[in-house]
Input
Amino acid sequence: MNGFFVSFEGPDGSGKSTVLRRVLTQLASEIRPPYLVTREPGGSEIAEAIRQVILDPDYVAMTARTEALLYAAARSQHLTEIVRPALKAGKLVISDRYLDSSLAYQGAGRGLGVDAVEAINQFATAGLLPDLTILLDLKPQVGLARIQKLRPQAEDRMEQEQLAFHQRVYQGYQQLAQRDSQRIKVVDASQPIEVVTQTVIQILRRNLPTLFKD
Ligand code: TYD
Output
């Protein structure tokens, strides 16, 4: 495949979606190939429908295994319908979350184990990994406090989890970053948003120089 695949990762409240938006505004004039922004869980009609089921706060009885399989199912559909065709067409694909979210949230957070979650995702993705992953690094206490301040009511099923769960997710991400430091670049997300944005752009420039016009 000819395109480039970049994923953004981070704990809830890390500012991932805001940083992503700001990075894109700047990138639009600086990069060569056409790009596509997408998200997980979701990104295609069927995957968005699966997202509704996964995040519904009423589904308190959902087991960890069902949850992991649904994330993997949404991912498989999203890859086949959206990501692979775009990469084949030479585009830059930027995904708000991808595989590492499952390894951190279901593998570490839910305690299913990174190996087990990796195995079902191998089936779902046929092993497709991003060329580069940006991990926004923020302590769960800070992230959860941000969320509560922003929207005290509208929490989804994952955000409603206790601090201990989010701490395991955080540790999970740290271990993934250590294991795969070539692909996963860690950015301190406690800095001001503009500093975080510029740091991400620098990382993209350094690691994917052929994307940029100059
Ligand atoms: P997202 O829409 O990125 O929420 P936010 O913008 O608030 O970070 O993701 C929804 C939730 O789904 C989030 O809590 C992380 C979780 N998630 C998993 O647990 N496993 C996964 O594989 C993915 C993609 C997301």
